[in-house]
UniProtKB/TrEMBL annotation:
Example of a GO biological process term: mitochondrial proton-transporting ATP synthase complex assembly
Keyword Transmembrane assigned: yes
Pfam families, A to Z: TMEM70
Organism: Notiomystis cincta
UniProt keyword Transport present: no
Protein name as annotated: TMM70 protein
GO cellular component, one term: mitochondrial membrane
The encoding gene: Tmem70
Family label: Belongs to the TMEM70 family.
Alphabetized UniProt keyword annotations: Membrane, Transmembrane, Transmembrane helix
TM ranges: 40-62, 74-97
């Protein structure tokens, strides 16, 4: 897949003059989905990062004041291990779990392409563009993956699509070989005739 950032000075100027929503990006197409946990994901990541930075700056001070440097090697190892766990493992784990969380999803009908907005490791919005035919549904239900866009895992909440048809098209359910209810009704009517 190809990923790119979309900085646009003209877009900012136009948006500030118009009364449109800050999520209107005509270059991406029509907004079909908005994740309701976007602020929570951003908040948790930001808190985790700021805690890690605080820990890094406080570690030398704590060691100096507590005299841990003079204590046994075992106490030192346990202390560093605990601080290291919260400083590095937590933000990395959080990023891995939330990197595919789709904040917004846009659809360009004429090209059948989607633009998924996610947060990258440094909390900046990242745009991933993919075609509907690039969408793969995992064989087994995965906890943090609704579908794959080429190889990138994406997480959306199906109930947050204002138009269920948009979700069906994204997942390719509208192209499936299953007979729809309307089709069955037409077949029944034809038989009766």
């Amino acid at each position: 897949g190809f990923l790119f950032q979309v900085p646009s000075f003209q877009g900012v100027a136009v948006r500030s003059l118009s009364t449109s929503s800050p999520h209107d990006h005509p270059e991406h197409g029509r907004l079909v989905y908005k994740g309701n946990l976007a602020k929570a994901v951003l908040g948790v990541k930001f808190f985790s990062y700021s805690t890690s930075i605080f820990n890094l700056f406080m570690m030398p001070y704590i060691m100096l004041k507590s005299g841990i440097g003079v204590e046994s090697l075992l106490v030192q190892a346990a202390f560093y291990g605990l601080i290291g766990l919260f400083t590095f493992v937590t933000p990395v784990t959080l990023h891995i779990l939330t990197k595919g969380y789709v904040v917004r999803l846009y659809y360009k009908e004429e090209m059948d392409t989607y633009t998924a907005i996610t947060y990258n490791a440094i909390l900046v919005e990242k745009a991933t563009v993919f075609h509907q035919k690039d969408v793969k549904i995992p064989d087994i239900t995965k906890m943090f993956t609704t579908f794959y866009a080429k190889t990138k895992s994406m997480l959306v909440n199906p109930t947050l699509f204002p138009n269920p048809q948009d979700y069906n098209h994204l997942m390719g359910y509208d192209k499936s070989s299953f007979l729809k209810f309307e089709d069955l009704e037409e077949v029944k009517e034809a038989d009766e005739r």
